[in-house]
Structure formats: structure tokens, C-alpha cells
Amino acid sequence: MRKIFLAPSLLGANPLNISGAIASLEDRHDWLHLDIMDGHFVKNLSFGPEYAAALRRYYPGSFIDTHLMVDNLDVILPQFIEAGSSLITIHAETEGHLLHASLMKIKNAGLRAGVALCPPTKISSIDESIFELADLVLVMSVTPGFGGQKFIASSLNKVRELVSLRAVHKYNYLIEIDGGINENNITQAVLAGCDAIVAGSAVFKSEDSAAWLSKARDAIEEALKDFE
Ligand code: DX5
Ligand code: ZN
Q: 218 catalytic, yes or no?
């Protein structure tokens, strides 16, 4: 059975008690998803590089999945590489930067590199050199910027397209989905082909985050048993 990575998004946690929120996961997560917003690429602000560095310091063994929703990558990307993420995902739509060069910068630093696509961005608009290089392709299933939005179901078509493209070209990327994931659509996302699932509100606004993750994992395993 293929491995599915569950990645709770800290943006959905109580900002005044992030360590309590992480403790509430009881290690039933795989990755910690860290959303970085600059108030320019998206209409919101979130965490800075010191925050990512503190996560690395306090949770040395954790896989930190950093999602950069920022312009000005020339300044911001090196700061997050330095902070010690495990994987850094940059957006294909980021203003005026060289996507291939930025992915190389991440990989040359020994980290995994991802590319994210906003809902209107078509797969055909991305050059194959990007897919060859990417360790992960992140399909946004909401407009980036805020947690708690409604899942855009047609994103699953993009996931299916990425699965076929990967098979045809023998690419190695994992497929991640982010935005509006909840207990009603999580198995659909996995069955469409997602390898990594981000969930913010669903995990942290539930009464028991650890129980939510266990239930999700059981539902996924059950669904994969029937379909694989
Ligand atoms: C949105 C962020 C997401 C967000 C998801 O721009 O990239 O990671 O935290 O939150 P939910 O799961 O609440 O949609
Ligand atoms: Zn995100």
C-alpha cells in the first residue's frame, strides 16, 4: 500500500499556543506544514524565518514542509533554506523569478524542492524541466492566503493529470493537495492520487486532533485496500 503523508497546517492552530497544538497531534502526523505569506503574493501575513528556525530547534526530528506564498524569492528563499526546513515549495506564479533556478537553489542546499500551482494554473503552462526537478507538486485546492475555505473539487482533475504525466515521463514527484481538506473529501483526494495531504482547520478545529488523524488514516487505508 502506498505511503500517504498527513501534514497538519499550523496556520489552522491557535497562534497563541502552537506548541500545545503540536503536542495535541500526539505524533500521528507525518509532516508539519508551515504556510509563509508575505502580504503581497497573497493577501495575508503569517510566519517569518525565525519561526521556522524555532520549529527546527524544538522539533529536531520533524519533517517541516514549508509552503512559500511569497514574491521576492531572492530575499526570502535563502532565509528559509537557512532556517532548516525539510522541504520548501515555491509557487509557479511567483512574480518575476526563475522557477528552475530557485528549485536548484533549494536542492543544492540538500533540501527537497516543491512547486505549487494555484487553482487557475494549468499543468500545460509548466515546463517539463520543472517537473523533472521537483520532488513534490502541490495542487492548491483553494485560492492561497487563508485557512478555512471551501474545497475546489475540480482540483482533483489536476491531481489525476499529474499522476498520468508522472507515469508517462517517469517523474519522481510526490503530489500534495492543500486547502479545504476535511473528513468528507480526504479519501477522494487520496484515491485521485495524492501522496501528501495538508489539513489546517479540519485537524486543529476538531475537538481531538490526534483522533482526527487516526480516523483519517484508517479511512484512507480502508479506501486504498478496496481500490489498489
Ligand atoms: C492556504 C494554505 C493552507 C491552509 C489550509 O493558503 O496554504 O495550507 O492552512 O487550511 P485549511 O485546511 O483550513 O483549508
Ligand atoms: Zn499551505
A: no
Residues around the ion ligand 2 (C-beta < 5 A): 35, 67, 178
Domains and CATH numbers, the chain: 5-227 (3.20.20.70)
pLDDT digits (tens, 9 = 90+) for 52-108: 999 999 999 999 999 999 999 999 999 999 999 999 999 999 987 689 999 999 999
Whether 7 is in the pocket of ligand 1, judged by its Cβ within 6 Å, is: no
Answer yes or no: are the C-beta atoms of 124 and 161 closer than 8 Å: no
**Given 30, 71, 178, 195, which residue is catalytic?**
178
Contacts of residue 31, Cβ cutoff 8 Å, sequence gap at least 6: 5, 6, 7, 62, 63, 64, 65, 86, 87, 196
The tens digit of pLDDT for each residue in 151-168 reads 999 999 999 999 999 999
